[in-house]
């Protein structure tokens, strides 16, 4: 069908990361908004974006954008979309959406109207009165923002943060897309030692190893759009071949340690699933024993936040230990994400740079120390 207008939703704070990724991948029309990045690509590009984006949550085709102040306007705007170009007579088309600061504030009501409009359009085109919806699933999403409707067709299926290597996680999981953004901030590379001393299930270390070796995050999973007949045949297979050809089997080691032996075992299991176990050395080590003879390196970590009072006090004591231990390392930089508003006070030093990010709905800061 030629070129598509696409949207890559992302966690708040990651828009610039996603925009940078898209530009590096050669996409055009890249423009960031709150929580999403717009860009243009052909059918092959849909496959490449899904396979290669580390920091985006999914890739969606933008089908229409229009104003709707009434349910009639919403219905007519959705019915005007050429749904028959995408959805077959037997295919499934579930609808989901959000409404923010709009007159049409009831999401269930909007869902019903959008579904009804699609059914009416397809009923006219296919000459049938009932749709069995047993074929290819097409997830239709809508966003109502200040009375403007954006209608989208999801091409990813499960969110892109679901790389396939982490079926189980620890109690405070860091989303893979956020971990990838943290790694990107550190400018991780094979020539610089990378260490996560709060490795947990290994997410940051695995994302670092994948980034350094240039292993596409989507290589070990499938996407909804692989079943879309309107995309070029073999687009995803070619995107996988291209991604595999870029892998750099450099000799490097990412260090990943944790105080809990069970987390060490889980991290090793996840690294094997991700295909990067040869790049990561897992170990059991309390942070106060952290030491290295290496001159210069990067620490990137997600220490406990401490949501309850006792846990919070324990976290604050841990931050004091971190401040003492980290600053004794010769020439190392460190990048620490936490939701604790007074982290710097307990760490004992103001960050050289702070960046506001979100781990799901939890507001965090990425504290960056360069010297």
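^ Assign residues to that structure.
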């Amino acid at each position: 069908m030629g070129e598509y207008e696409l949207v890559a939703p992302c966690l708040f704070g990651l828009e610039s990361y996603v925009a940078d990724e898209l530009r590096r991948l050669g996409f055009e029309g890249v423009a960031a908004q709150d929580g999403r990045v717009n860009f243009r690509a052909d059918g092959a590009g849909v496959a490449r974006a899904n396979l290669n984006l580390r920091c985006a949550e999914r890739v969606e085709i933008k089908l229409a954008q229009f104003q709707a102040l009434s349910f009639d306007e919403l219905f007519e705007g959705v019915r005007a979309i050429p749904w028959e170009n995408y959805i077959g007579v037997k295919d499934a088309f579930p609808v989901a959406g959000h409404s923010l600061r709009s007159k049409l504030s009831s999401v269930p009501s909007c869902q019903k109207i959008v579904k009804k409009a699609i059914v009416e359009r397809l009923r006219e085109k296919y000459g049938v009165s009932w749709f069995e919806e047993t074929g290819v699933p097409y997830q239709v999403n809508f966003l109502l923002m200040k009375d403007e409707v954006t209608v989208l067709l999801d091409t990813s299926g499960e969110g892109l943060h679901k790389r396939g290597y982490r079926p189980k996680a620890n109690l405070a999981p860091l989303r893979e897309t956020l971990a990838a953004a943290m790694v990107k901030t550190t400018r991780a590379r094979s020539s610089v030692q990378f260490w996560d001393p709060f490795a947990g299930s290994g997410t940051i270390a695995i994302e670092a190893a994948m980034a350094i070796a240039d292993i596409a995050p989507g290589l070990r999973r499938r996407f909804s759009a692989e079943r879309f007949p309107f995309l070029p045949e073999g687009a995803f297979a070619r995107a996988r071949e291209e991604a595999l050809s870029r892998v750099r089997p450099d000799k490097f080691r990412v260090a990943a340690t944790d105080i809990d032996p069970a987390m060490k075992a889980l991290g090793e299991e996840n690294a094997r699933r991700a295909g990067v176990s040869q790049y990561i050395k897992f170990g059991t080590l309390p942070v106060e024993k952290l030491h290295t003879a290496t001159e210069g390196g990067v620490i990137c970590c997600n220490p406990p936040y401490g949501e309850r009072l006792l846990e919070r006090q324990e976290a604050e004591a841990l931050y004091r230990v971190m401040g003492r231990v980290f600053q004794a390392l010769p020439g190392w930089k460190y990048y620490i994400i936490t939701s604790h508003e007074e982290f710097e006070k307990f760490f004992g030093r103001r960050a050289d740079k702070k960046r506001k990010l979100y781990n799901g709905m939890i507001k965090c800061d990425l504290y960056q120390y360069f010297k």
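The radius of gyration is 23 Å.
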